[in-house]
Amino acid sequence: METEIRRRRGHEAKEDEGREVLDKRRGRGEEIDRSFTFVLLLLLALLSSCVSLVVFSPSSEPAIVLISLLDTVLASIGVLAREHAVVLDAGSTGSRVLAFTFHRHIFTGNLVLESELWKEVKPGLSSHAADPVAGAASISHLLELAMERIPEEQRASTPVTLMATAGLRLLPVTQQDALLDAVRQTINASGFDNRGVDVMSQLDEGVFGWLTVNYLLKQLDNPTKSYVALDLGGGSTQITFSPKYEETFVTTPKKHFLHPVRVSGVEQTLYSHSYLGLGLMSARETIFRLNDPPEAFTLASACVFGQVEFKGLVIKEEQMVGYEACMMEVHHFLDTMQIDQCKEVPTRKIAAFSYFHDRAVDVGMLSEGESGVVTVQQYLDAAQDACASPSPQSPFLCVDLSFIAGLLHHGYRLSADAKLGLYKQIDGHQTSWGLGAAFNLLE
């Protein structure tokens, strides 16, 4: 009997223990359910808040961040289709290929830059004026580099264009045509969608450069806050910006400076002008030739020390040599170029690139590849130092820096304390007109 009682009590104890375990499990389960429901409701509330923010206040900073984050995530996992464009820049000192990869923004449908390839070969296409086949071969090499970045199945739908700048503009028309015909055949045989091989219009060069820097600096949708783009090439220089003052529209020569353009689907008027002959290499030669007969091969200049050679010319120092004498030559040259001194330019933020940046690096104003803000006075000081202490390794620094400082201070009428943002790259992307040209190809 006692054994039976103990057995029953043991069985009842086990049942109680089992019920206790079940109750604990049930309690934990209910707690997990409540926690899950809370998290789900929280997520739904958060999602609803995000959707409301995007719908009712799409231009607010939090909404922009949310949209950008979603767009980035979807692009990274391959949900958004990629598009490609190839731009060949046949400049005066070298030819470059820029192969871009984009996707369309999830909400706006605007192009979003993901990556780019940038490679250069020297000398430039215009140096092959006597041998068009060699010129086309240099472009063929660049196209092969682009092919490595673009899937084979997408090449036929990938637009490619070659745009030649000041170097080709300065050649006789027959030599231009021969080079461009040879390049055109090369691109036609590449498998890409050939969208044109031509000498670039001076307007496009300025506008595309402005598009590039303002897109990369995230100011393309804010015309009144956008930057003035200053591009200094070898054969020409460009100045482009979106005017915000009525005075600019009234006083600017409209025919060659004010141009209606379409930016991100919106019509607007840009101030843009390209000065052929005000590129660094062209300006250097013209300054050397001042006061010398056109047919002379031995020249005298206040901007060199001793004797140097440039483009087959022999340049000797003049009796009066140094910073002040060199700057007088620079001013005399600039005064012949009829530079429009728009009053709005000194009031705006300025982004300068190409040789503006390169020469600043040469004299230690910036490190190699670094971006930064400098003043016009720093260029003036650098020019004075270069002319006072000429370097045999860099015999053209005096003339180059004097020209750049003179162009900014005397030509564009920027004050000595005016600031310029100097850029070689922005967020790892080249500050050239190539990106703007790619937008034009795909939009």
Comma- or semicolon-separated keywords:
single chain, 443 residues, alpha/beta, Nucleotidyltransferase, domain 5, 3 domains, 7-stranded mixed sheet, 5-stranded mixed sheet, 45% helix, globular
Structure explained in plain terms:
- The chain has helices spanning 2-56, 61-76, 132-147, 166-169, 173-188, 202-216, 246-251, 254-257, 280-289, 323-335, 355-362, 376-388, 397-411, 434-442, and strands at 82-90, 95-104, 111-121, 159-164, 193-199, 228-232, 236-241, 258-263, 266-276, 298-301, 307-310, 313-317, 350-354, 372-375, 419-423, 425-426, 429-430.
- The protein is of the alpha/beta class and 443 residues long.
- It folds into three domains: 1-56; 57-200, ATPase, nucleotide binding domain (Nucleotidyltransferase, domain 5), CATH 3.30.420.40; 202-443, Exopolyphosphatase. Domain 2 (Nucleotidyltransferase, domain 5, 2-Layer Sandwich), CATH 3.30.420.150.
- Strands 8-9-7-6-13-15-14 form a seven-stranded mixed β-sheet.
- Helix 9 packs across helix 13 (397-411), helix 10 (323-335) packs across helix 13 and helix 12 packs antiparallel against helix 13 (397-411).
- The protein starts with a helix and ends with a helix.
- 37% of the residues are buried.
